[in-house]
Design a protein that fits this description.
mainly alpha; two-stranded antiparallel sheet
């Protein structure tokens, strides 16, 4: 949404409905939004991997039975 609007591109839903832009067209805003998107994507990936690693650690090292209860 906001990143596409800043790039000057329309936001289309299912290729039919065009939604209004959330941000004015601006290359500076597009660059900031793209950088924020990349950083937040990396943060989310690290959080998911840490969660998986913690569950596996508990299942194979901790032996508290938490992993068995989750599955």
């Amino acid at each position: 949404g906001a990143m596409q609007g800043a790039a000057g591109l329309p936001l289309r839903v299912f290729g039919v409905l065009a939604l209004p832009s959330l941000t004015p067209e601006s290359l500076v805003a597009y660059g900031v939004l793209r950088t924020a998107h990349a950083i937040l994507t990396s943060v989310l990936l690290v959080a998911v991997l840490a969660h998986i690693a913690g569950a596996l650690h508990d299942g194979f090292v901790g032996r508290h039975g938490l992993l068995r209860r989750m599955l």
